[in-house]
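ARCHIVE CARD
CATEGORY: sequence design from structure
SOURCE FIELD: tokenized fold
FIELD CONTENT:
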């Protein structure tokens, strides 16, 4: 690849400034208050693609936020890479834990701090800049399409029908995504697995109104106590999930494969130190890395009810709520798991309360192959720019669209991310290393070059 290093050197300040502009727009898809900003971000991304030299840059409407589409078709006989990313971000709460405001990006110690810096504006924008380089220096070796969505952080609910309706337009040979991590800046890795997700809300109702906890307490079931007991009962002493049938379809990996995966460097002491915890925790007989990649989980994401204001109020509440997520592994199916949870939750509810389960979004797990030309091109690209062969690694997060790409479009994805687990995505003080940002811009054109040579 000619001149990519010089191009980055000469343009890096502009690359950073442009990303900072995007990061200033609070594209929080979860909160309807930010609707104008989410749409504004879609338009800004579209304009960046126009500026970079892409054709047919459009916002394609969906039932939710629009998808930004763009392309550069140089020759129908050449392979086509479809780049996917998302321009929406997570809510920044809790705000008081940020050292600088989430939508006023700052560069500190070689990192850009802002909500979305890594997930996924920074990683998505690497592709726009890599394309700019390939286009402006006449080195785009194959066709490219962009599909940048605005509802990933809320479950991409409108994307399945988007894919069905735009099958022709999205026709490609491979999907390329940067929305995951590498193990460390000197240990490159390629993500070869993502967990699926079942997300739901539960509601436990006791008496028909809040009661005096002295007058009624002890004689009427307290829905918060009941909910806590129900949740606690869903894991046994080995941290196995007790929902009947939950593990039926879980893929058990061979000893050999687990040993192979275990070779990826991981320092449990550094991990504990980074999180300020004295001990790790999880399913018996699995390592920390296994617990966050090849094993399913059940976690309470939020729980509320009763009085949580200043001081004390003696009350026996009428209702209790929780938001619960289950991360899924091959070959679990998110609809099936949601149904199993619902049935189980209803079956363990004591007669003294009524319960309701409201399913939210979900997605299926994926594993991507390593014996394909696309994987080999990605590995070679990383080897070229990092000077080390990347390690194939399964990750714990979810990108629901990846399973749909496979099922609806029949396309595999390459998950070549450049973030770090320590980038605090979804947390206060999210950041993205400038090293990582520029390394991504440097590596992507090599992927195109190697893939175009051997692809299709
Ligand atoms: N980029 C993340 C997923 C991710 C992060 C994968 C790190 C691997 C490593 C994505 O934006 C995300 O946060 N997905 C959500 C799922 C969605 C349905 C809300 C998740 O994993 O919670
Ligand atoms: Mn993401
Ligand atoms: Mn995310």
């Amino acid at each position: 690849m000619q001149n990519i290093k010089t191009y980055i050197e000469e343009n890096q300040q502009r690359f950073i400034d442009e990303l900072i502009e995007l990061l200033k727009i609070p594209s929080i898809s979860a909160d309807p208050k930010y609707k104008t900003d989410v749409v504004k971000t879609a338009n800004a991304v579209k304009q960046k693609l126009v500026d970079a030299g892409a054709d047919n840059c459009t916002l394609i409407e969906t039932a939710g936020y629009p998808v930004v589409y763009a392309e550069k078709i140089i020759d129908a006989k050449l392979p086509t890479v479809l780049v996917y990313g998302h321009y929406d971000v997570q809510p920044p709460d809790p705000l008081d834990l940020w050292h600088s405001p989430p939508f006023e990006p700052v560069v500190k110690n070689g990192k850009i701090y802002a909500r979305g810096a890594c997930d996924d504006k920074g990683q998505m924008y690497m592709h726009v800049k890599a394309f700019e380089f390939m286009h402006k220096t006449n080195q785009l070796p194959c066709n490219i399409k962009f599909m940048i969505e605005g509802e990933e952080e809320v479950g991409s609910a409108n994307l399945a029908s988007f894919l069905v309706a735009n099958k022709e337009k999205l026709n490609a040979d491979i999907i390329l995504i940067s929305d995951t991590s590498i193990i460390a800046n000197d240990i490159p890795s390629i993500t070869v697995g993502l967990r699926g997700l079942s997300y739901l809300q539960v509601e436990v109702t006791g008496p028909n109104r809040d009661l005096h906890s002295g007058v009624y307490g002890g004689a009427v079931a307290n829905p918060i106590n009941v909910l806590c007991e129900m949740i606690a009962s869903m894991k046994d002493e080995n941290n196995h999930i007790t929902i009947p049938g939950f593990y039926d379809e879980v893929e058990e990996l061979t000893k050999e494969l687990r040993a192979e995966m275990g070779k990826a460097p991981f320092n449990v002491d550094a991990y504990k130190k980074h999180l300020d915890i004295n001990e790790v925790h999880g399913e018996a007989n699995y390592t920390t890395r296994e617990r966050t990649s090849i094993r399913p989980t059940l976690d309470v994401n939020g729980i509320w009810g009763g009085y949580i204001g200043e001081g004390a109020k003696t009350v026996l509440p009428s209702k209790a709520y929780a938001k619960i997520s289950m991360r899924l592994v091959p070959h679990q199916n998110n609809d099936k798991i949601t149904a199993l949870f619902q049935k189980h939750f209803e079956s363990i509810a004591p007669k003294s309360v009524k319960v309701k389960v409201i399913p939210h979004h979900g997605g299926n797990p994926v594993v991507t192959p390593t014996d394909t030309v696309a994987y080999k091109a990605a590995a070679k690209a990383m080897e070229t720019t990092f000077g080390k062969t990347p390690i194939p690694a399964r990750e714990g997060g979810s990108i629901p669209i990846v399973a749909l790409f496979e099922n609806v479009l029949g396309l595999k994805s390459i998950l070549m991310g450049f973030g770090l687990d320590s980038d605090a995505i979804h947390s206060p003080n999210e950041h993205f290393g400038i090293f990582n940002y520029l390394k991504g811009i440097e590596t992507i054109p090599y992927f195109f070059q190697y893939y175009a040579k051997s692809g299709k």
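CARD ANNOTATION: The radius of gyration is 23 Å. The first strand starts at residue 55 and ends at 60.
SHELF: design records, drawer C
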